[in-house]
Amino acid sequence: MLSVASLLGSLLSRSSGGPTAKIGSFQWVHTSYNKPGLLLEMVQSVIPPITFISHKGLAGRIAVIGGSKEYTGAPYFAAISALKVGADLSHVFCTEGASTVIKSYSPELIVHPILESKFAVHETSEWLERMHAVVLGPGLGRDPVVCLDTAKSILEEVKKKNLPLVVDADGLFLVTEYPDLIKSYGKAILTPNIVEFGRLYEKTMGEKPKPEEPVLAVKVLSRALGNVTIVKKGPNDIISDGENGRFKVKCYHSKERS
Ligand SMILES: *[C@@H]1O[C@H](CO)[C@@H](O)[C@H](O)[C@H]1NC(C)=O
Known about the structure:
alpha/beta, UDP-N-acetylmuramoyl-L-alanine:D-glutamate ligase, eleven-stranded mixed beta sheet, 11 strands, about 40% helix, globular, binds 2-acetamido-2-deoxy-beta-D-glucopyranose, nucleotide-binding
């Protein structure tokens, strides 16, 4: 997947012109935005300046909902990446079995082993009051209670609080089970790989996506879900918010996809 860290690194170290600009190791094929400078401005605009009166938390408090007995790496990487690109505080809400493992990866993360508690939704919801953005799904697992029940209720709380939300991995499994859960939530970004995309598309549209029209398929699914943003990961990342597949991103730096 296109990582914000590598995007920033590439953007800040170089600039070039033309509608299809090669920026660092990325090639951007713009459809709506055709000026690389504009893209740089957009990225800069979301990064708060550091000042002497800044306090910890001002530059971002992030919640990652995920981490189970089997999977501890994915929530760690999501949470630590937020810190590496400048957020101040990164919280992980996971199951008890995952928490000591995740804590031992890094002293920088705040880890709440509460997803199996009967107060999970209530407690997480109280923490969400203080959060700026939420990532739901990395390493969540597909336990019927934790994923399809607790995480579902937490997602509803996120919507009530109108927080920006990234849904990945098993969070996409949840959304595929209940597409209405995410429908028309303008602050949602879904990040499916090709398999997750195919499942969600089929569930929502009642047919498989046509492989010969990959950009159109992302736009069609985004519209069907009320214009949520979809970042379909692949050899070309394809991003759409219901408009014309705004970016098709070719990414040459790595052949590894996730
Ligand atoms: C989604 O976006 C398209 C293109 O801008 C627009 O025509 C459509 O009405 C939007 N749909 C919803 C549900 O907002």
